[in-house]
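User: New here, please read:
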Amino acid sequence: MSKEWSRSTRYLAFILILIFLVWFLYVSRALLGPLAVAALLAYILNPLVTFVNKRAKLDRSWVIVIVYLLSLSGLILASVILVQFYSDQMQAFLQQIQTIASQLQEQLFAISFTFLGMEIHLDTLLPANGSSITDFVRPDLVFQLLQTTTANVGWILVVLVTAFYLLKDWDKLRNWLFQWAPPDYRTDTRRLYAQVTQVWNQYLHGQLRLSLIVGFLTGTAALLIGLPGALIFGVFAAVFDVLLTVGPALVMVGAAVVALFAGSTVLPVSNEFFALIVLAAFGGIQVVENIWLRPRIMSHHLNIHPAVVFVAIVASLALAGILMALIIIPVLGSAAVVARYLYCKLFKLDPWPEETAAEAATISSESAARAG
């Protein structure tokens, strides 16, 4: 029989393993966000895969491939439609800006004034020809753009491939992880897993509720001010609300461009002023959502103080980007579950007193039934 480690040896091994894990997480910190997003994507698609698997009675692997390809095709199709829409609108918008700039330049060149008895024309002070857009296309900027695009495509592939394998082999991976827990603590590990799963369920329910509210407010506001395609923008606002600042910003820019060219069907104002009204309305909804709605709804679903929710999202956006901000709230909720368990174990408390009380009540009722 192998000799058991002494207490000091076990402590030393534990400290070394902990140091290694901290170092590994620090080195691979850029990978944590995409992996978490992949896990969230797999978690969202899993109920659909399970439903189709029961209805179609196909092998789960084939169901995953079908659902995954259909979801990916829908995402690509929606992206192509949105890119085409924004590309056409932005091209027309830039052409109009260029026309306005040319007219403004001609008016400026026609201005003259007298200084110390000398008549000065602005066309002698300003260059006759504006800078071409090609003057700003430098090789270093092009290289930086290509590098950023390549990195983003790589992260997208990491997310998609990881989500696919999580959908396919999550049960095996979960059972493998449970086996790493000491035999006396495997029950606790499964309970912790169930509680963390509940946290992510509550987060998804809160996000769905928030998206529906934001979509309703956006569509109603757009309809009241006479924005063409108001209901479509309401749907876009609900769908892209999960992307935090990026998604709502895209919807806001698209609505402003449509307002600038189409005008209002209700308000008797110029297109330019109507575009400002649309920006103010959509921006106001985002301010209300980010400062009041999101913290309140997430606080209600996850039992986290609204101030903590607000500060966590803002700090994640500033320090780690949108991927971390997308998952920071359920991560905090999961960390709170684990921290509560560790606290109870450190101070010799019962981590699940409500379950103990329920078990005691069940035993009491059974004993009373036997006595009767």
In short: Confidence is low (pLDDT under 50) at residues 128-137. Residues 363 and 369 are 10 Å apart (CA to CA).
